[in-house]
Inverse folding.
């Protein structure tokens, strides 16, 4: 039985690399809002993440009708009222609002693309439409953070 290789020099090297990464300042713009609104927004984002997982599960089964329904009702423009989005807007800078609107529009396009795939078939357009939704999520999370 051989022992795994680990030297003290390697350990120090890894530590030296890890410390600056852990100490790096978070350069994202801080968004300030009352605690209740912050919890509201975090709850919405957790629901968005669950929704994306449900979409992915339906997509894996090629259940395009389910993808279309979930995308529109839970993420698309039709979902704005259910998420109470209008209450959050005053706390969001305009570029953040624009990213959010783009995400909801992309989700509505995903729904339409999935409906078309239910008739025509073809996974690639639906995957591309889902990638467009996720691109907006990444853009927002890379740029902004809640305090």
């Amino acid at each position: 039985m051989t022992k795994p290789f680990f030297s003290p020099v390697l350990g120090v090297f890894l530590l030296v690399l890890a410390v600056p990464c852990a100490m790096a300042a978070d350069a994202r713009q801080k968004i300030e809002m009352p605690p209740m609104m912050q919890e509201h927004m975090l709850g919405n984002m957790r629901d968005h993440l669950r929704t994306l997982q449900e979409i992915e599960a339906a997509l894996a089964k090629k259940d395009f009708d389910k993808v279309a329904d979930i995308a529109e009702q839970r993420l698309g423009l039709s979902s704005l009222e259910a998420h109470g989005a209008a209450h959050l807007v005053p706390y969001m800078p305009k570029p953040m609002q624009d990213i959010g609107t783009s995400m909801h529009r992309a989700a509505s396009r995903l729904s339409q693309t999935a409906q078309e795939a239910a008739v025509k078939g073809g996974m690639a357009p639906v995957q591309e439409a889902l990638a467009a939704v996720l691109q907006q999520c990444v853009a927002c999370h890379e740029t902004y953070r809640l305090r």
About this structure: The mean pLDDT is 89. Residues 94-120 form the longest helix (27 residues). The beta strands are 29-31, 144-146. The chain has six helices and two strands.
